[in-house]
Amino acid sequence: MADELRNFVGGQWTDTSFDKRADIIDPSTGEVYATAPVSGAAEVDAAFASAADASGGWRDATPAERSLALLKIADALEARASEFVAAESKNTGKPVALTLSEEVPPMVDQIRFFAGAARMLEGRSAGEYLSGFTSFIRREPVGVCAAVTPWNYPMMMSVWKWAPALAAGNTMVLKPSDTTPVSTLLFAELMSEFLPAGVFNVICGDRDTGRALVSHPVPQMVSITGSVRAGKEVAAAAAAGLKRVHLELGGKAPVVVFDDADVASAAEAIAAAGYFNAGQDCTAATRVLAGPGVHDEFVDALVEQAKSQVTGGPDVEDAAFGPLNNANQLDRVSGFVARLPDHARVLAGGHQAGSRGYFYEASVVSGLRQDDEIIQNEVFGPVITVQRFTDEDEAVAWANGTEYGLASSVWTKDHGRAMRMARRLDFGCVWINTHIPLVAEMPHGGFKHSGYGKDLSMYGFEDYTRIKHVMSALD
């Protein structure tokens, strides 16, 4: 019998007026194992009423009090890591071992970072900028925030939303993806032990639920991680209420491999960064641009890496990645490969793996041109493309020649070239001789159609605050 999930509002599990439920499917088997509410206007209203009621008290809590609450949440997550990973892996199909080692430690660290950030907000010093008057700056919470998270990293992306928002003194209503609500609901339950009721609320639902969240009059800020299409819809809907918008959208990360790069180590690292999480990562290293002298050798090395990737479900110990998240995503990835132009060559993979679940082979495609669909659009699957460039200027032009601007990497032993490329690449992140590591202290966010606003770091923390000027007469 399928588990029946519920919303978490006002510090408790709630049953309200929804009359529709959605199936939650295990991507590694394709089988239904739970159902979740498809929340409507009544649930959205109740969640925001709860967040609004809690807003004043949480805003007035001292930074030390908010910091301590987040530290306790981080400790509890660390202690219950296996439980969270089991829930996440069941809901996403991700290998348990990888999720435990690669996702939980950074999540705990990120929560602790924002716990510290809560006590470190700074502004300009007070001064008499007009004779007889003292001015100073107050940084205040925005108020009630709405958030929508994606299905590729349900646990981690929820942390990226609520940790800075709550640390800054805001309350939040968060809607996880309709396919992956389980770990976020578990977070809400855990957090309720350390937070006042209503500070953090989670409601399940579909796109219509998300639209209701964004257009609701209560929240003054909306944060979303998702597709470009979803980001545009959110920005348009939020404009009617002049809400602040934080968008972390798609990517098509260029990986520029110059002729002097170490081919073996580059191929290994790029494969790891391209196939991790089945390529379902907006920063995935899936668009390689290789120099003329290294192209053929690099392609051969990358093909060998692809063929060595082990694909498996949650309990496969040595799996490099699990299934795609859902049937629609499997169709999307398969469609990109099926529509390849005649000049393209599939050198590895290119097919669904097995007949059960949504697995797809680690794939390598070469012989591509800059205007090909698979170069210009985000695949979000374990498919790495390779193009041969002629010189540095062409590499820059091709790297920048998509609508995305989230992340990129450069592989070279020439320091001067690396610095030139870092300056010329039009992306929010440039890695040099590595790809995909993130740290809590540094910002993550893109340019162009990859959105605006920053996750992580003090820059991301400040996004959840507003600035107020206070002036006082001296007499």
Question: Your description of this structure?
Answer:
The chain has 475 residues and is α/β, with parallel strands linked by helices. It contains 16 helices and 23 strands. The chain has helices at 41-60, 63-79, 81-92, 96-102, 104-117, 154-167, 182-191, 207-215, 228-239, 263-275, 295-308, 327-338, 373-376, 392-400, 415-424, 457-463, and strands at residues 3-4, 7-9, 12-14, 21-26, 31-37, 127-130, 133-141, 144-148, 171-175, 200-202, 221-225, 244-248, 254-257, 287-290, 345-348, 363-366, 383-388, 404-405, 407-411, 429-432, 447-448, 451-452, 465-473. A 7-stranded mixed β-sheet has the order 15-16-17-14-13-19-20, sandwiched between helices. Helix 2 (63-79) runs antiparallel to helix 5 (104-117), helix 5 runs parallel beside helix 6 (154-167) and helix 10 (263-275) packs across helix 11 (295-308). The protein is globular. It starts with a strand and ends with a strand. The model has no long low-confidence stretch (mean pLDDT 96).
Instruction: Please provide the count of β strands.
Output: 23
- The overall pLDDT, averaged over residues, is 96
Distance between the termini: 73 Å
- Which range best describes the helical content: under 10%, 10-25%, 25-40%, 40-55%, 55-70% or over 70%? 25-40%
Strand-pairing-aware structural class: alpha/beta
Strand order of the largest sheet: 15-16-17-14-13-19-20
**Global morphology:** globular
Assess the beta-strand content as a share of residues: 15-25%
Largest sheet: number of strands, sense, barrel closure: 7 strands, mixed
The total of helices stands at 16
Outline the low-pLDDT stretches: none
Taking all Cα atoms into account, the compactness measure Rg is: 23 Å
